[in-house]
Amino acid sequence: MIMKRTTKLSVAGVSLVLVLGLAGAGLSNAHDRWSGYGGSKGGSVAYAHGQGGHFGGQRAKGRKMMRRMMQSFDANEDGSLTQAEIDTGRQQQLAQYDSDNDGTLSLEEFQVFWMEMNRSRMVDRFQRLDEDGDAIVTAGEFLEPFANAVERHDRNGDGVLSKDDRRKKGGRGQRNPDGDGAVAQ
């Protein structure tokens, strides 16, 4: 079945609303003030390894989100989603995680939902750190992604990370090769 452009845009809009709804419920801010960092308290491993840019591969994330929505909500398995299917799927999720059956989710109930929905992301991040694949993250493996963080991100060459090291909006400046700490545009 070929979807019309307006249908694709509608489905993308629903995806965005769901993502923003989850973000409002406590996700890390994906567009942190520090360009290239995943969050204000240390960032993600993907950013630490220099993967992704300011938006960290939003198209790929959108496709993955769409795939997850289809798996979760496409009740008749026809490859498309109606608002009724999404609403029904969300109601079922609410009922599944509402352990006290009061029609709401407490923080504790939401935590169970959140952890289940994000377990694969957690495992992926763990596996990125576990370089030798022994299912244990050693101190060395844990510390390595941030070992040269100041050196890599100190744009003004003052030896510390501060708001002065943020990328300028719209610019991808790098430190000048002459080492004077000035940002080249």
Automatic annotation (TrEMBL):
Gene3D superfamilies: EF-hand (1.10.238.10). Pfam families: EF-hand_5 (PF13202). Residues 146-185 are annotated as: Disordered. This is EF-hand domain-containing protein. It comes from the Bacteria. Residues 150-167 have a biased composition (Basic and acidic residues). One of its GO terms (molecular function) is calcium ion binding.
